[in-house]
Records
---
Amino acid sequence: MYGIINKSLKDMVLRQFGEPAWQRVMQSAQVDDDSFLTMRIYDDQVTYSLAAAAAEVLGLTLEDALRAFGVHWVQVTLQEQYETLMQATGKDMASFLRNLNALHDRISSTFLDYKPPHFMVEELSDGALKVTYISEREGLTPFVEGLLAGLAQRFNTSMSIRRIESVEVEQGEHTEFFLDGA
Amino acid sequence: MDVYDSLWAELNQLFSVVCQLNPDGRIVRASRLLRERCDLDVSNSQNFFETFKFKRPVLIDGSYQSAQAAVGQLFLGFSESHQFAIRGQMIELSKYGVEGLCFVGVPWLWWMQSNATHAPLALADFPVHDVQMDQLFFMSAQQAMVEDLQMSNDALAAAKETVEKSIQIKQNFFHHVSHEMRTPLNGVISAIALVPKNNLPSKTLELLDVATRSGEQLLEVINFTLESASAADGLANEPSELFDTHILCADVLGIIRTQALDSGVDLAFTIDKSKTACYRGQARLLKKVLINLLANAVKFTERGSVGLTVEISTDARAGCDRLDIVVEDTGIGIPKSELLHIFEPFVHSVTPGVKSTNGTGLGLSLVKHYVDAMGGELVVTSVIGKGSRFHFSVVFERADPCELAETQMTSLLFLDNKLHGNILLVDDSETNLLLNAEILRALGLTVETANSGEAAVAQVTSNPNAYQLVLMDLDMPDVDGFEATRRIRLDSACNAPPIFAFTAFMEGRAREKSTAAGISGFIRKPVSPKELFRHLAPLLSVGMQFVDESQEVITVDPLVENFDTRVFTTLAHEIGVDVTGTLVNKFLIESAGRWENLHNAVAAADTPFIAREAHTLGSACLSLGLMSAGMAFRHIEAEVRGGRPLVIDKVDNIAADLNLGLQRLEQTLNELRGA
């Protein structure tokens, strides 16, 4: 994964729990160097180890830690560094989710090692949204849950997010979300 | 749908900004994005060139014709309202059966980013093939990378500062501890040196000897600690100064001479005197290296000789020479297994069957530090039982000998191994004053004392010519050594004698501060009489005399012999013996006149005249091989050019040397004539 992910995770721990907590996370994850560079590629295992260690140190389940990280990603990292693109991607929850693939397509044209997830968005008759998350990575569904929650806050909607089901696939993860009350 | 309608639909798929113009420049049709962003009402027949101002192409003048002429070129424009900007090109519609032009393009993202941030663009405002949004993401990522690197730099700078601080704390601790150790050691070494040795039982003398050697050894260790710290501070910052290789080597050999005499070892010096000898470089380091290497060589040579050879060759760097310097001995040698480690601290060479000598094993380590600092490389080769050879090459910038004459050139004066001169010793400690004054007197010097910086300033400024050297303690209450030196320099800049810091406190900053204050050099306290002699010998010279010339066992630096046969015979060989004879006669007549002139000029204190006469006499003497007289004249020249007063005795002292030299010259000339 690109360093921006690890950097954002570090930022979340530092902002919410302070430097000693981050030092414990690094120690537990056995990561010596935390000077992550945004666009440098790091082994996915570094991110997984850091997330697991953060959960352990902060006394959270891994799922809760990833969920919190998802919210932080949208509300802090993207907002502080990529706000123009965020604005360009959509003015509301539905348009943003619908344009997300287009944004990822564009990023992929420049960053060749980028392996973004894919989102299928279906507007239901009652105005609710069914979002299918498709990724070749595993274990990041809670992170996506956090992302959706962060976006809901960004667009000031009181949408409830429910994970309907995870579809069994050979590699990666396919998960359906139901976004209600937008 | 006709052909044009279908074209319009295609264009709207390919571009988000599409605008059809009729031949008078009015807008006929516009894409949705354009209508929304520019609030266009096509039914009003708005003029395209009034709605947009174009930055590119440069030749667009607001007319339809100019736009038609620019078909195929890049158009960059922004709306009059500054709400929207477009980039794209014009296409001709005539081939589709429609009169007019059509603008096709996209929003001009970079202009909007800078000028219309209140009206952000959306992904959907760009066709998928347009790369501006990709660029935007790329730029944002690059910006983040720059911030990452800035953060890394800040973190590294902070870490560096922390490390430097901790190094500084460590160094301060070392200096403090060294200082604390030096003070009592000063008392021990000085007191032992002053114990009256007469009538003491041999056992007591032996114990005193052990105490002296142990004290000196401990002092060497402390000195090494401080020297190493100085090396870490940056020996490369050691000031560059003008020096004469011949004189520098002569000084060094003079210092080692006593040790060589004691050991019964011959000293030999070889240098090609026809080569330039004046350079600008780190002379003090070179001197330290030579003293250490020669002292070591003498120490480890029981019989035979120790030689110093200097070979000078032109270096590839413009205006520079390379000096290949070799110190060679016929001593015990160093085992092969130890050669690799010989420059490491605390390494003693142990030669099978040879009793180990005293020493800390630090000297060669320091020598290597110094040679490294001069940009050279020290190499050693050795054969057990045959001797060792230390070689290094250094490159120095050539200097003008005349320039050298204007510097405060010093050399040494040996008279029965005694120093001569009047020294002002400054120290706020009465004990230090007493001990060190005694040691200095024991070396043959006359000593006056001042127990404060203020008193020192008063004594020197009231009579600057009274002293040949001031030894100044730095750490004194009220007016410290730095301030005292500064005041002396301000008051009598030209005539003040050299001021050397005589201190136990020698950290890097003190050195910088000293140089700024006008301190000429450093001597560390405590110091043994032998060490002090070594330090002072090169500083207290007004001429150069070796009174025990008759001791044949020593081949002293040829430069300081009264007469150098090789110089004279080479001259005779080159110009012929008869011509040489005529030259000598002319010299005898001329030198007698000049000698008298010099005398009169000294009496009249006519400085320029003294310098000129001394210069002429010096050059003539050196050309004929009258080395010691020639050098003495050169020193007189340097002294007076340096603004120091000259007494007639200094001139008279040369007479004996000159006469002895002339006798040998005439003898050689007769031998050559006979041959």
---
Amino acid sequence: MTRIKVITDILESNARIAKQNAEIFNEVGLYVINLMGSPGAGKTSLLEWTIKALSEDLRIGVIEGDIQSSIDAERISRLGIRTVQINTGGACHLDGNMIRPALDDFNLKELDLLIVENVGNLVCPAEFELGEDAKVMLLSVTEGDDKPQKYPLMFQQSAVLLVNKVDLLPYVDCSVDAIEERSRALNTAIEVFPISCKTHEGLEAWSAWLKKHVGEKHEGG
Amino acid sequence: MTILLPVAIMFFNMHELTMAQAILDEAQQQVEAHRAHRVLAIRLQVGELSTAVPEALTFSFEVISKNTCAQDARLDITRVPWRIRCSSCQKEYRVHDRLALCPECNSAGGETIAGKELMITEMEIE
């Protein structure tokens, strides 16, 4: 019997593919966000608003990840945006390998922003890199302010936290301050934007953030 | 403008399967590299923050390692505690259950220095 030391990251093969994806994006100066959040947090509604707000200035493409159905892709393509739906057939997250074939359906050179809407889930999407520039997490106030404590990895990995449905705050026991404080304890650099996709409150700040980052990558690339 | 792209994956509703496959790939490579015949044990470190569930990982590995050189290999999984370096006073401390205040200076949070591991550290082969 032989004992061998093999210090290997189990997710290394995914990390390698994600890095290759990132190289593809960097080559054409394309900014990519990995949008994550629970089912029903409002990811697709956020996408719809963001596309309407930015599509005059930016060329946007969307990859939709869902276990089943093309409902989301149909919603987005109604806005005249090229959308590729990935059905994971049961898998709870997208990984670097899964989005690769979808990239062939875009002319990446003619895009400024690619938004990948991950499978609705607060658990494993946090662990699988896609090659994105930023992970953006959407949490709605109806889910409660204890989520940073329950799903710490998600909050640690995200560059931006959007707290959605703030128009419902009078009806739910949830404190945006508590969410913000608990998120910052996990991730001091996280940017927090309280928003409502219903009333459009706070969305200008989010789109300004996004536009700034897309612009910076474009200039660098 | 909608393009449907089904991804063929085995119908396991869990991400541990992806991880188990990566472990099996590594085990097979090591067996080949060392001209061994089979894998007896694989030692893993899984951080408390990792989303991998040890039981699901073990089960997935059992299923996919059938009829390979790693069949019957034992997975020894060590959970690595979540540790934080306080952002104010730099004290390093362990987090139990949920993020609390620094035991030294009472401020909230800091940089995670351990607990995200998902690593193979050692294998026994023959």
